[in-house]
Design goal:
The chain has four helices and no strands. It is mostly helical. 5% of the residues are buried.
Amino acid sequence: MIKRAPTAVASFNMNEKDVERLMRADFVVTGSDGSAGHPRRYGAFPRLFREYVGERGVLSFTEAVARSSARTGELIGLERRGRLAEAGSPTWR
């Protein structure tokens, strides 16, 4: 039974048009589920900036940074994290 056995699922059915469409959605942030030794552990963010910002223009550089930092912090409830601000400004800590 699946309820009792360890399970894992890998899906390879997404196409790049779907990835690009989802990446543009406001609720999507960048993350990685890569474990020790897996390329996604270190490659997810460089790929975002190289391919989806630089090569394809799916996101702007600013949007990619926000989806990799501030928006992620907001999503998981980390206040005042993931933003650059001048020292002493109200948003600086």
